[in-house]
Amino acid sequence: MHIKVLILNLLSIILLILCIVANSEDSNITNYPIKASTKDLNPGIKLNAKNLSADNTNYILSTSNKRGIIYNIAGEEHLNKLVKDHEFVLTGFIVPWCGMSKKAISQLQEVIYKLSEYKISEINIHIEPIVGLVDISKYTGLSEKMNVSDYPDIKLISLKKNDTYRIYDYNGPINSEKIFTWMHKKITYLKSHFIVKLNSINDITQLLSLHPLACIYIPPRVKNEKEFITFRNVAKITDDVIFAQITTSENEVIENRNKSNLNVTLLTVSREDILKKFNIESKADSSVFILFKPFENRQSILNGPIINEKELIDFIDDEKLPYTLLLTSRTVGEIFSGKRAVLIGFFRGHTGSLDDKPLQYKPSSIPSKVRAIFLDTAKRVGKSILFVISGNERPIERRVMDYFHISDNELPIIKYIEDLNISPPKIYQLNIKTTPVHVNYKIDHSSSVEDEDNTELVIYDNTVIHLSSSILTNFIKDIQIGNIYHSSLSQKVPVEQSNPVYIVVGKTFESIVHDSNKDVLVLFYTPWCGHCKAFGPIYTEVANIVSSKHHIRISKIDMSANDVPDHLIGEPIVGFPSIRLYTKKRKHKPLIYDGEREVSALLDFIWIHTARDEL
Question: How many whole angstroms separate alpha carbon 37 and alpha carbon 48?
Fold first, then answer.
């Protein structure tokens, strides 16, 4: 499948947040303890001095209640020793000056903190991995041997019986929880055949404290080996959920067989105790599958026996999805993944804590009534639409507002993105009615009343907002029956074009680029792209030289702020910067420039292909 320009646009939001720490001094993100340094990883990485003490060449991380070590891996011999001593080494391949690498180190630090709190041996994985860093600018040979193609690159490394490396590549987002879950699943696969084995209720609560998205299997009184194998097969193909099994004193031990390699420990805890602990009703002869989740409905139940893998997969896929999410740097990837349509409400203030525990709101933040309305609407509509609430204070919230071209004076506002897998996406807008509150009016920031139309009036920030579940539901219905027309992202059309590089926006792409009277060179770029920034002066110089040729237009378009239909672009854009020449005769099949990013090379490309058309 071709990579859509839209996906690049959406990923740019995520990448911007990851890069902002390195490129913006006024960022108010506070969870990045990695600063510039001059030692060990030259030009190096140093942790905040308050949290750092030296142990030879390693970094000992500690806070008031957390402690762990990042091993500074000095070459292959050092790595080999660490793997032999500890069996598993979660390794980050980084370059110290890279903002993304700093982000990776920060998240690996959080993984260490989790490991320090989590005794893996207590849940029957008798191994504790360690975390290390490799500076690929110093140890290029080791990086090549580990097949490092980019940075940062995170891998789980162990040794096979013949002392060759077994390498597992992490391909997910740079997020400590995602990394930890992925690592745990890999180790579980190697040590326990995909299933974490739980010996007590305490093991269950411990597992859930570190893996809040987990599927736990409680077998029936009489063993069902076929059902267990089905459960294990689903665990093999599901990446984002931890799978665990508990057995009870009433359940027979499934003996260790060479063919199936099943080995389940007999427990002393009773089945009734477990069901009572989690308020589950089940027949004595039935198995139970509990999906624990870190959002509104904390657990979902599937009573067995299950017939096939599809039944369990469908249950997990449906129930693991939340009805609502708060927009944070941790959730932005899920929100814009393209799995569901998205309805996102932007409000003044902040959304509370970063997790989904009961939120405590300050008077200036978004009242809990807003989330209650969103949740009620989501339950009515179903999980085909993801409902999202955003404030306007955090960096990620500002970035997404910029992406949708939303200013503070437009808040509150609702955006509905129908299908994230088409380019450009269809975006619909709902402007929420507001009424200023009189200065002498006594405000209850969490209150709501109803007007004459039974519309709830949510009062906060000296403002009454007219919002209800029926308003949101009717908005969605109007979209579905075609009563509301969609719009695409586009910057404002420039009033004048005074620079040698012509500015193209979404609304003007077809009229400017597909002008049959001109050969048009287009630079597709994004502001967050370092290569784009470096190429900017070169491109401007080319534009100055070509400016006397009236049949040629040198232009550029910011693809993080404008949507252009695929059929107008031509072949899908797979990276930035991308340069294409739309000659008079090739508007739908532009020439893609893949030469050196130099003035002379680009000029040769232009002269050759435009001169031919002029003859």
Answer: 10
Q: Decide if 261 contacts 232 (C-beta within 8 A).
A: no
Which positions ≥6 away from 491 have C-beta within 8 Å?
A: 405, 505, 506, 558, 561, 562
CATH of domain 31-173: 3.40.30.10
| SS (HEC) of 120-180 | HHHHCCCCCCEEEEEECCCCHHHHHHCCCCCCCEEEEEEECCCCCEEEEECCCCCCHHHHH
pLDDT at 538: 96
Give CA separation, 216 vs 176, 230, 304, 377, in Å: 22, 13, 12, 30
Q: Between the CA of residue 568 and those of 289, 513, 572, what are the distances in Å?
A: 49, 9, 10
CATH class of 324-480: alpha beta
Token pair in block for residue 145: 């041997």
- Cβ-proximal residues to 286 (8 Å cutoff; 6+ apart), any chain: 220, 303, 304, 305
Extract the tokens encoding 509: 């792409």
Q: CA-based angle 376:379:382, to the nearest 5?
A: 145
Do 60 and 130 form a contact (C-beta atoms < 8 A)?
no
- DSSP state letter for 453: T
Contacts of 610 (CB under 8 A, 6+ apart): 519, 549, 551, 552, 581, 583
d(CA 70, CA 310): 41
Cβ atoms of 158 and 90 closer than 8 Å: no
Average pLDDT, the chain: 75
CA distance 273 to 537: 70
CATH fold for the domain made of 193-320 = Glutaredoxin (3.40.30)
Q: What sign has the CA pseudo-torsion 332, 334, 340, 343?
A: negative
Tens-digit pLDDT profile for residues 118-142: 554 445 444 567 889 999 888 888 8
| Residue boundaries of the structural domains of the chain | 31-173, 193-320, 324-480, 502-614
Residue type, 491: Q
Residue 305 CA to residue 125 CA, distance in Å, equals 28
Strand partners, 167: 157
Could you report the per-residue pLDDT of 469-497, keeping only the tens digit for each? Answer: 999 999 999 998 888 877 777 888 998 89
Beta bridge partners of 242: 214
Decide if domain 502-614 falls under CATH 3.40.30.10.
yes
How far apart (Å, rounded) are the C-alpha atoms in residues 26 and 179?
Answer: 28
